[in-house]
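Page header: ASSEMBLY MODEL / three components / 895 residues total.
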Amino acid sequence: MKQAEEILQILKDNFPDSILELKTDQPTEPILIASPLEIDKLGLFLRDSSELLFDSLMNLSGVDEIKANLLSVYYHLESTKLKHKITLKVSTDRNKPEVSTVTEVWKAADWHEREAYDLFGIIFLNHPDLRRILMPYDWDAGYPLRKDYENPEFYQGMKVPY
Amino acid sequence: MLAMRTEEMVLNMGPQHPSTHGVLRLELVLEGEIIINVIPHIGYLHRCFEKHCEAMTYPQIVPYTDRMDYLSPMGNEFGYAVAMEKLLGIQVPERVEYIRVIMAELQRISSHLVALGTYGADIGAFTPFLYCFRDREKILSLFEMTCGARLLYNYIWVGGLSHDLHPDFIRKTRDFIKEFRPNLKEVNDLLSHNRIFIDRTANVGILPVDTAINYGVSGPNLRGSGIKWDVRKEDPYSVYHKFDYDIPVGEGKYGTVGDSWDRYYVRVLEMEESCKIIEQALDQLPEGDVQSAIPKRIKPPVGHVYARVENPRGDLGYFIISDGSTSPYRVKVRAPSFVSMQVLNELCKGYMVADVVTILGSIDIVLGEIDR
Amino acid sequence: MMYDFLVDLFGNSTAASIIAGTIQSILPLFAFILPFALFAVYLERKVSAHMQDRLGPMRTGWHGWKQTIADILKLIQKEDIVAKDNDKLLFNLAPIIVFAGSYAAFAAIPFTSIFIGTEVDLGIFYIIAVTGIVVAGILMAGWASNNKYSLLGSMRSVAQIISYEIPTILVALSLVMISGSMSLHTLSEQQTGYAWNWYIFGGPGTELSKFLLIPFMFTGFLIIYISTLAEVNRTPFDIPEAESELVSGYHTEYSGMKFAMFFLAEYANMFAVSAIVVALFLGGYQSPVGYLGDLFNAPWLIPIEQFTWFTIKGIFFVFVQMWLRWTLPRLRVDQLMAASWKYLIPIAFVNLIIIGLITLL
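Prediction written out in full:
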C-alpha cells in the first residue's frame, strides 16, 4: 500500500529525465503530472514493477482546459494485488494534441482513448484503431465535448438544431 | 485440380435485433459458422450526458444519471451521491445510508432478474423470463411506494433522499424476501441445472483472470473468472462494512472457470447475498431525518473526485472536476458495460454464430450505459 | 362407404368415381385440419400462458376461444409484401409446397376403422416419403427471400429434417418387421383388444416375444417421439426459427396469407407426426378399455368412439410437444446434429437388430 509521494519517488528514481511532479493543493486526491509522450513507458513500468503492480486502469478521461489552452488526459490506476491507487495527468497543447497510447499496457484503454479522440480530438499515437466511437463515423463538424464547440447547421442534409 | 475459393462472410446483427439488448450493431466476420472477428459498433443511443452536465447545476444532474443504466438507476444515483459527498465533504445521517443500501440491493436483485430472464429467453427457454419478471414487478411496486416511479426514480439526492420510507415499506419488503427465496430456487431448478442450458453455456466464452483485469472488466464478469473482487469490500462506501455477506465467485462447476455458465451463476448467487444484506439492513435501520443534510446550494470547492460503487454490471465510476461554480466543469462516467464490451471480440473468437448471443447475454450489457 | 355413396350420387361412371374419390379424400381431412389448427393455436397460447404464470387470451369470447378466428381474419386481409429482388415464382410456391407436404401425409393416417383417406398398402413408407417434400419447400422459402438470415435458417432446417428422418425410418422399420404390414390401417387393426395389446407393450398375442419386446418398444417410442419433434422444428430443436438469433428464420419475409399457410402447415405437421406415433405405438384409434358400442349393442357407435379416442390421443401428444417447448431451452446446431448422428441413430440401429432377432423367435 503506497502513498502518492512514495510512488512519485519510485518513478523519479527510474525515469530521471521525465518531467514529473505531484500536485496536492486541490481536493480530493493528489495528481501525478507526467509528460504526454512518455506516458506509455511510464505505464509499462507502473504495471510491471514489483513494488507498484498497477494492473488495472480504472478510468481514462479527456478534459478540455480552455483557459490554459491545454487538452489533458487523466488516468486513474489501481493495483488489485497491492491495493493502492494513483491518479496521473498529462497535458498537451490544444492546437496539436498528441499523447502516446497506453493500449499496449492496459487493453482497457482502447475504447476510452477512442472516446477521448471522438469527443476532444486528442490524437493517441500508435493506437491500433483510432476512429470515432460514439458520434457517427463521418461526423466532420468538430469535437463535441470541447468548450468552444458549436453545433453545425446541417449534417448530411438534415438540420441539426431541431 | 482447381482449389475452391472460399470467402469470409460478413453478417450484420444489426441495430434492431431481438437479442442484442438494445441498439447495438455487431459486425460478425464469419467463415461458415465459425467466427473470426466481432466488431461492435455503438453510439446509437448517445444522448450527450456528459455535455449536458456542464450546463446544469449539481442537483439537476441526478435524474439524468438515472437514464444511463436504466435497469439499475438507484445504483447510478448512489454513485453520483457518493462522489459528490466525497467532494463536498459532507456526512449524511445513518438512516439515509441504510435506506440507500436497501434500495441499491433491491435494485441489484431486480437488475439481475432482468439479466437472467433475458439470458434464458435468448437461449430459448421462454418460461424463466416470465417468472423473473413476475418477481421484478414486486420490487418495482416497492419502489413505486417509496418515490412514486417504477423505473426511473430521482430518489437518492446529494446529501440525502427525496422522500422518507413509506410506513408499510419495511413490512412489505420482508414479505417480498420471504416469497422471493423459494421463487429463486424454482428458477434455479428450471434453468441453471438444465442439461441443455449447461450444454449451451458451459465452456463457451472463457475469460481468464489476467485478461479480465487487463481489459478492466469488473463486477460479476470478473468474479465469474474466479477472483473475489467487489468494490463493496475493497473500497467500502456507505455502510457496507457493517453487514455480513459473502462474495460468490465462479468455480467452473460444469465447465472451465470463467465460462458463461459461471458468469450467469455468480449473478444467481449474488441475488441470494443481496437478500441477506437487505434483511440485516432492515433489522439495523435507525431513525432520523433523511433530508437534514441536503445542502441548500451545492457549490463545491475547486478540485476533482473519482469515486466508484458496485453496480449490478460492474464498478461504476464518476470522475467529477469542479471549478468552484454551481455546475460541474467535467463529469466523466466510467460505465462498466462500456469497458466490458471490449472483451467481446476476444471471447467470441473461434465459436459459432449461436454462441455470440450466449456470450453477449452472459456479459450483460445495457446500451444506455455504453453510449450515455 | 362414403365413396360408394358418392359414386351412386353422381351416376355410376368413371368421371363420377374420380370426383367421388377426390371429394372423399380431401373434404373430410380438410374439415378436420382447419378446425384442429385453430384449436391447436388457441391451445398453445393457453398452455404457454398457464405455464408462465399468466392468463393468455381472455377477452375474445369466453376465455378467449375466438382468438384464433380473429387472428386468421386479420392475416387474410394483410398486405402481401413481396420484396423487389425476390425470386417471385419460388417465393410464391414455397408456402404451398410446405403445406401440401404436411397435408398429403394425412391421406394415409387412419382416423377410424371405416374411414381412411386412401387405402395405400405402403402406408408408412408413403408418409415418410411425402413429408420429404416439405424440405424442398423450406429451401425455396429461404432462398427466394433474398435474406442472409433466412438462407441460414432454411439450410439449418433442411439439415435438421434430413438427419432426423433416419431414426424415424429405423424405428418405423422395426415396427413393420413385427407387424408384417406397412399400412397404418392394418397396424391399427392389429392392436385390438385392451391397452395391453398395443405395440408399445409388445403387441397383440401372449407369447414370450411380446414380453421381451417391451423395453425395446419403449426405447423405440422415445426415439421416434424425439425425432419427429425435430422434424416439425419444435423446441428444443427450433434452431431454424430461433427467434432470438435469426428473427424467425426462413419465414421472416412472409406476411399475410402466405405466413398463415406456414403457420397452418406447422400445426398440421405437429398433429400428423403425433398421429403417426399414436398409430404405430399406441393402438391408433383403438380404445384402451373397450367400446361403449359393444356395451349397448349399438355397432354404429363404434367408429365415432374410435375417432374420439384417436383425436384424444393425438391431442395429448400435441400437448406434450407444447409442454416441452415452453420448458426446455434450445440446442445449438452442432449439438442438434450430434444428438441425431451420434446418439439416436446408433441406438435406433441396435434397437432394430434386437427387435429383428426377437421376432425370429
